[in-house]
Specification:
By secondary structure, the protein is of the alpha/beta class. Helix content is about 40%, strand content about 20%. It has 13 helices and 14 strands. The chain has helices at about 10-20, 50-60, 75-85, 95-110, 115-125, 150-155, 180-185, 200-210, 215-220, 240-245, 255-260, 275-280, 295-315; strands at about 5-10, 30-35, 40, 45, 130, 140-145, 145-150, 165-170, 190-195, 225, 230, 235, 265-270, 285-290. Helix 1 runs parallel beside helix 2 and helix 1 (about 10-20) packs across helix 13. The chain is globular, with a radius of gyration of 19 Å.
Length: about 325
């Protein structure tokens, strides 16, 4: 079946909306392009946190409490690492470990990240396509007062505590979009492109940093709509607000609109930010009000339905 809906996503927040989209549009018509700037090598394993979060969420085997990792996982591996004094700051449950071991073996045997991810989606009977942004190596690097930090070092090991000075995407200029991603944005068959409420700076910008992606999305022939990850001057999850403040950026839905200006046709903002509607419209961006906080499965479906409807109004 032809893909008609393309979503750009990071991890937990994006996965929630992607889940809602699979229950709003025919799941076979949805493709989710996922940030791989968070990928890293850990204990010899190729770890893809955002990709795995999407796969687990759409397969409905994710940990509903943490939002990442597998449900009902066990931690024997981490316990054994602790016994021998190995680093345990990045937690991999036993079930999660199995996927990382298999992915590392597949990549070392010549498979691409796209091929491996598609295989896992098939095995878990996920009808939607989950596509890494690139099969190349792009790594998010956080420049801080401590010096440059790899993303997981900043995000997990140091718990986002260092002050952010700038964000770089190492390897982006040499990367190319994953083949299937490139085909989707040039096929002229999309009904909508949806930017999920993931962190714009850490989750969506790495995708847009790959040459050809931003321009391809502009020219794809479909309306591009984004969901604001900021509500009432604060981020819904993660360090978005902290990073914005440290970069000297006002944390507001208007700033999100300015950040995506030139790429998006519309921005979905929370009803609590209705006072910003006129300012965003003045930027030449259509605005729609909704509840964008997803606390339940019903919230995810409702927001997804609103986003799809919004995009149809902009065609």
């Amino acid at each position: 079946m032809t893909v008609r809906y393309l979503a750009l996503s990071g991890g937990v927040g994006g996965a929630k909306l992607a889940f809602g989209l699979t229950h709003t549009v025919p799941a076979e018509e949805l493709a989710v392009v996922v940030n791989t700037g968070d990928d890293f090598e850990h204990l010899g394993l190729h770890v893809s946190p955002d990709l795995d979060t999407l796969v687990y969420t759409l397969a409905e085997i994710n940990n509903p409490t943490t939002g990442w990792g597998r449900e009902a996982d066990t931690w024997s591996f981490m316990g054994a690492l602790e016994e021998v004094g190995a680093p345990t700051w990045f937690r991999l449950g036993d079930k999660d470990l199995a996927l990382n071991v298999l992915r590392t073996h597949a990549l070392q045997s010549g498979s691409t990240l796209s091929e491996f991810t598609a295989d896992m989606a098939t095995r878990w009977k996920i009808p939607s396509r989950i596509i890494p942004m690139t099969n190349g190596t792009v790594r998010t690097v956080i420049e801080t007062e401590l010096g440059p930090l790899d993303f997981q070092d900043y995000f997990v090991r140091r718990r986002c505590e260092p002050v952010v000075q700038s964000i770089q995407f190492a390897g982006a200029t040499e990367a190319v979009p994953a083949t299937e991603f490139q085909e989707l944005i040039t096929a002229n068959s999309l009904a909508a492109v949806i930017i999920c409420p993931s962190n714009p700076y850490l989750s969506i910008d790495p995708i847009l940093s790959v040459p050809g992606i931003r321009d391809g999305l502009r020219k794809c022939g479909a309306p591009v709509v984004a969901v604001s990850p900021v509500v009432s001057g604060d981020s819904m999850k993660g360090p978005t607000a902290k990073i914005m403040h440290e970069l000297g950026i006002i944390c507001s839905a208007t700033t999100i609109a300015q950040h995506y200006r030139g790429l998006i046709d519309g921005l979905l903002i929370d009803t609590r930010d209705a006072n910003l509607e006129a300012d965003i419209a003045d930027l030449g961006i259509a605005v729609k009000l909704s509840n964008v906080v997803m606390r339940s499965a019903e919230d995810r479906r409702t927001l997804a339905n609103t986003v799809v409807q919004f995009a149809s109004e902009l065609e």
